[in-house]
Amino acid sequence: METLTKLIYNRLQAHQDLMLVTVMSSAGSTPRGAGAHMVVDKAGYVAGTIGGGKIEHRCVQEGMVLLQQAASKIEDFNLTPKAGDLGMLCGGKAKVLFTYLAAADTLTNQVLEQVLIKQSVHESAWLIFQLRGNQVKLGFYSETLQFVGLTIPKDRLQVSAISYEDQGATYFVEPISTSAKVYIFGAGHVGRALAAVLPPLNFYTEVWDDREGLLTKQYLPSVNTMKLVNFEQPNLTLPLTKQDYGIVVSSSHKTDARLEALLLQTPAQYIGVLASKHKIALHTRALREAGFTQADTDRIHWPIGLAIGADSPQEIAISVAAELVQQRATQRQVMAALQTQTK
Length: 343
Description:
Blueprint: H1 2-13, E1 18-27, E2 37-41, E3 44-48, H2 53-69, E4 73-78, E5 93-101, H3 106-121, E6 125-132, E7 135-142, E8 146-148, E9 162-166, E10 169-177, E11 181-185, H4 189-197, E12 204-209, E13 225-228, E14 245-248, H5 253-263, E15 270-273, H6 277-289, H7 294-297, E16 300-301, H8 313-342
Parallel strand pairs: 11-12, 11-14, 12-13, 14-15, 15-16
Antiparallel strand pairs: 1-2, 1-5, 2-3, 4-5, 6-7, 6-10, 7-8, 9-10
C-alpha cells in the first residue's frame, strides 16, 4: 500500500484529482477482500487492483464517471453469471467504496502525508473514510498523532479493515501501517532472496549479519533496514516483540543454535530456521538440554517454509514468504476474533 499511497500523494500534489476505489467488504468467493485498492484518473486505470476481471473493468468505468461529477458513493456488486449481475463465476458479493480525492482539498493532502510518514517510520496507523451523502471525508489515527480529520471510537481501530454505520454516515476503517517486522538473521543466498521478496508483500524487513560487505543497498536493494552485528557478542539481545517474525539463515550452525535460543526468549509470533532433519534433531536436543521445554521448541518452524519442494535460494524464499503470509493471515483472524469477543 505504501507505493500506492506515494503515487496518490504525488498525483494530488501535481493538481490531479483522483478516484480511489476500495473493497469495503466481501462475502463468499471474491477476487479480493476488504482493503483492496485501485486508483482511477480521468483517463482510466492508474494502479492497484481490486481483483481484475469484470468487477475491475466496471469500477474503472464507474470511477471515471464519478470523477467527472466530483462525487463519491458505495456500490454493491454480485459476482454471479445471473442476468443483471457482473457475469462472473466467483459467486460472491463485494461492497465497493468510490472515494473522490480532490487535489485542492487540504485535509486529504494532510492525511495522506501523515500516512506516508507513518508508513516510512513503520508505525501502526489507520486510515478512516466517512461517507455522508456523496462526499467522503478522510481521517487518520496513530498513537503519536492521535486523530487527524476525523475522530471515531478507538475500539473501531482493529487489526483488519471494518465498515459500520453511525449517525447517518458510513465509515470504513483500515489499518494502513503496522509496526510488525521480519528480522532475517543472515544475508547469504537465502537471506538475500528473502530480503527481495518480502518487502513487496508489505513485510517490513530488517537484515542482520556479521559481514559488512553484504550489508549494502547494492546487494540488498529492497530491504528496509540493515544492521552489522557480532553474533558472538556475549550480551547479544534480540528486540523482537509479539508482532515480529524471526528467520534464522546465518552462515554457521553454531550461530544458528545461539539465535534459536535467543529467539525463544522473545515473544515473537514466528520463529523459522533453515534446517535439515539431522540439524533439527541435534539442535532440538541441545535446546532441551539447555532447559527449553517441548512447548518452546514446538514454536520453531523447521524446516522453514511451506513444503513445495523448494531447492534453490529463490524457491526457498518463495516457500518462506508463503508461510509468513499464511502466519500473518492466521494471526489477523485470531486477533479479529478476540476483538469481537471483547465487544
